[in-house]
Every structure is written in structure tokens, then in C-alpha cells.
Amino acid sequence: MKKETEVSAVSSSSTQVGIVGGGPAGLMLSHLLDRAGIDNIVIDNRTRGEIESTVRAGILEVDSVNLLVDTGVSDRVFRDGHAHEGIELRFGGENHRIDFKSLVGESAWLYPQTDVFIDLADSRERDGADVRFGIGGVRVSDATADRPSITYSDDQGEHEIHCDYLVGADGSRSICRHEMPESQRRHFFKEYPFAWFGFLVEAPPSAPELVYVHSDRGFALISQRTDSLQRMYFQCDPDEDVAKWSDDRIWEEMQARVAGADGFSLKEGPISDQAVLRFRSFVCEPMRYGSMVLAGDAAHTVPPTGAKGLNLALADVKILAEVLERSVAADDKTILDDYGPRALDRVWRAQQFSYWMTTMLHTLPEADDYDNARQVAELASVVSSVPGSTYLAEAYTGWPGRD
Ligand code: PHB
Q1: Average pLDDT for residues 8-24, to the nearest whole number?
Q2: Is 72 helix (H, G, I), strand (E, B) or coil?
Q3: What 3-state class would DSSP assign to 10?
Q4: Which domain holds residue 170?
Q5: CA 38 to centroid of ligand 1, rounded, Å
Q6: Mutational test site, ligand 1, from 84, 223, 302, 354, max ligand atoms within 8 Å of CB
Q7: Residue 274 included in any domain
């Protein structure tokens, strides 16, 4: 008879790649590894329902769309998503269009992250993948050893998964990242003195494309979801209390931020899903430690202004799947060293782009008239110059044609 205090595993499994995190990065990696004949198990402490009900950002680069479609996850993005051939930068009360199609020959796709997750989760289920959602008490150990392990417990007891490789795709509060001793990792970090107040609106779209608004009352973003549901944000204090914002107060603030001589105004409707989204810029280097690698938000986060978070996660795992495939085939873990530098090239380009968009469009708490006028001059330089607009279009659509 086992003693109450004794902990012994009730199940023990083995796999080639253990993936912590069943968000888009973890599920896409699992899918790509399956296609390469590499056995893997995905675990996540959230339930599928919890992940699905979190409202997230909504822009996909063309390479992200191609990855979903070409590898057979789903082509629903072509039916339910919308190709956007440009965005509006609104400042001085006027719209200025950045025409992606004519500048770089590509579009960005409006397709919410929640739908990407649903497509991936459905596809993993269809393929009979081992994805375990909603499990508690996850721990990882022996990241540097040849056989790292993941343990977790449920009401039956303790479960162990032994793996050859461990992937931390477990988001910005990653437990895997903390397996790397502090002396072995470097954190690059930037905090911003503002946040976004995000909400959903039951109304028709106010504009056919996204409108990024600079105003002397602060930033606003007009995005879309469907013909009858829209997503909007406005810059707020990181400690803002959503309970203090009635629908009327939100509309008054939003209409004031978008007001201008052209008479543009927002189509109003009932508001739901209000939330304050704090953000920061963060990179952890290196992305490999022993038998463990990090992917997506576990290794880096960006402010949402450039819509890069999900796209970076998908770009990471595309490279990672290919590197893991070579490493498994050669039975050589030093090949994992190829992953970080290749992924970080894009990560730092996206850091720069997201930082630049954020600082160009938001108002710092201590900003004065000089700062405001300088930002307007910067925006005017971007929209009035082909190289300036091309830089924005190229970065926004995801540097088409580059690794
Ligand atoms: C969104 O639709 O939620 C969205 C779009 C673009 C961004 C951020 C969020 O830059």
C-alpha cells in the first residue's frame, strides 16, 4: 500500500519532443513535427475553452497565412479572413493611406488569433495528436540533460513525460525560461508608461481597413472583426480601471480622438469585453539551453502596435521544426544552435518596428506641444516619402520574401 506522502508516477510516457504550451506556437510546432515524422506531446495548463475565449490581436502576415494553408492546417482564413491591402495612419485629423500592395506587392490578413488557435486545435485533433489541455502543476526538469522531463499532476496522481528535446512555447510567463540559470541568459527589456484599453463593439465597420490614430489625446486603433462586430483600442494608463468607463464615456473619448476636418466618426454600438492590456518589449537570449529551446512569447514579446506577436511565434516554430528535424536525423543536439540566431534576426527587426510604431503614435505622460508636433512631423515624413512608407509596408506585411 502506497503511503499518502509518497509520490510515484501513475503514468510515464516517452516522446521525442515535449512541448510545453498549447497556444498557436506549440500547436503549429506539433503539426510541423508530425509532418516530419517526429513524435511529440503538447501540454497546457489552460483548457481549450479558456484559450478560445481570450480575445487577442487579429493581423496575420502573408507568410503566416501560407504556413497555415500550405501545411494543410486550414484554408478557412481565405473564407473568413480579409486581405487588407493597406492601413490608414490618421494624424492632424486626416487619413493617410499606406498602400501595401503598390509598395511591396503584398497584403496583411485580418484573421483573429483565436481563429488561428481553433484551426490548429481542430487540425491536431483530426490528426490524433497527443495534446493535453487543462492540466495542473506542470514542472520541467533536467533541461540540460540528455532526457529532460515534464511532470504534472491530476486527481489520479503524478504523470511523467520523458523527452529527447523540450520546447518552451509557454508564453510570456514561461516556466521553461526559468530553467535557464540567470547567469546563462540575458534579458532585454523595455516597459512603456501606457497601456491599451481594448473592447468589442456590436456595430458595422467604421472603416474598411485598420486606422492607426495619433491625436493630442493619445493613440487609438480602429480594427474590425466581422460585418457586425468590431475591435477598437485607445491608449490609457496602465492602472486604468475598466469599471470607470461607461459606454458613453468610451464613445466620447474615441470620437474625440478620431475627430478631424474630414468629419470622420465612429459607428457606435453596445460595448463588451473591456480590458486593459499592458505591454512591454522583451527578448531573452539565447533561445537554447541544453536540450531545451524557447519559442514565441516565452522568448520575446512586442507591444501590439505592430501586430507582430503571433507572426513571430509562427516564424520561430517554422525555423525550429526544420532545425529539430536535422538535429533528430543526425542525432546531434549541437545543431540546435542554428535556431536562435536565425529566429532572432526577425525578432529584432520586429522589436525595432513595434517600438518605432509605438513611440511614433502614442503620447508620453510628460509630452508637451513640442513632442506632439515632432511626432506629427515624423508621421508626415513617413507618409510623404516612398522609402518611408515602404519601410512601414515591408515590416507590417512581414518582410515578404525574407527568411
Ligand atoms: C486587432 O485587430 O486586435 C489588432 C490589429 C492590429 C494591431 C493590434 C491589434 O496592431
Answers
A1: 92
A2: coil
A3: strand
A4: 3-55+112-189+281-357
A5: 34
A6: 223
A7: no
In a domain, 273, yes or no: no
Are 101 and 107 in contact by the 8 Å Cβ rule? The answer is: yes
Identify the pLDDT of residue 6.
43
Distance 112 CA to ligand 1 centre (A): 9
Cell numbers for 289, please give them.
539551453
Measured distance CA(274)–CA(233) in Å, rounded: 9
User: Does 34 fall in a domain?
Assistant: yes
User: What's at 15, amino acid-wise?
Assistant: T
Q: In this predicted structure, what is the pLDDT of residue 152?
A: 93
With b meaning 16 or more CB within 10 Å and e meaning fewer, what string describes 261-280?
Answer: eeebebebbebeeeebbebe
pLDDT tens-digit series, residues 217-259:
999 999 999 999 999 999 999 999 999 999 999 999 999 999 9
The pLDDT tens digits of the residues spanning 310-347 come to 999 999 999 999 999 999 999 999 999 999 999 999 99
Atom 2 (ligand 1) nearest CA? 58
Q: Annotate 337-359 with b (16+ C-beta within 10 A) or e (fewer).
A: ebbbebbbebbebbbebbbbbbe
298 occurs within a structural domain: yes
Taking all residues of the chain, what is their mean pLDDT, rounded to a whole number? 95
> CA quadruple 96, 102, 104, 106: dihedral positive or negative?
positive
Residue 50's CATH number:
3.50.50.60
Region at 244 (left for phi over 0; alpha for psi -120 to 50; beta for the rest): alpha
Active site residues per annotation: 84, 212, 304, 308, 396
State the pLDDT at residue 3. 36
- How many domains, in total, are found in the chain? 1
pLDDT at 402 over 90: no
| C-alpha–C-alpha distance, residues 397 and 62, integer Å | 7
| Cβ-proximal residues to 290 (8 Å cutoff; 6+ apart), any chain | 143, 144, 145, 148, 333
